[in-house]
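User: I'm putting together notes for a lab meeting next week and I want to include a structural view of one of the chains we've been expressing. I don't have a solved structure, so I'd like a prediction I can at least talk through. The sequence is below, exactly as it appears in our construct file.
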Amino acid sequence: MISIALYKPQIPPNTGNIARLCVALDCDLHIVGKTPIKWNQADLRRAGLDHWDKLSFEHFSSFKNYFSKYKLRRIISVTKASPVRYWDFTFLEDDILLFGNETRGLPPKLINFLNYSVSIPMWGEGVRSLNLANAVSVVAYEAYRQIAARQKILLSGGKDGLNFKRTYYMQKKKRH
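Assistant: Thanks for the context. Below is the predicted structure for the 176-residue chain, given as structure tokens.
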């Protein structure tokens, strides 16, 4: 399916939440460029819960290295600079969704280099951006919705993605 790429992410809980989302969607997570995140930080690990061993993950030191490996796939920048709304874009099964970091987004030079970009509209006055983990969720689920609808398939290996075991609140047995 799709892959999620984060360009120089800065906030460990966002990256941890996105890692958990990638496990839920069964997609890869790519970290591109230098980041201040320490992969053993408690808040990063906590946000990802117990899903780290299930995550397909790669870290690239630069966009140049990343692009050299993935140049045959469509890399779609998600940026407020794009005139194309994410729901008007046709996502494909092998797409890579590239998101900028929390404070600066993606560099204009990088956005202009790539052939595809989408934006998430915001109507509220004075809002610069959405939380990175929320933005990734919105666009990734739209991509999956489109792909599944076109292919008329059920996600998660033939399951509908809705059958899950509750792990936090276990039902207590009634005592007689």
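A couple of points you could mention at the meeting. DSSP finds five helices and six strands in the chain. The helical segments are 12-25, 42-47, 63-70, 108-113, 132-151.

User: Perfect, that's what I needed.
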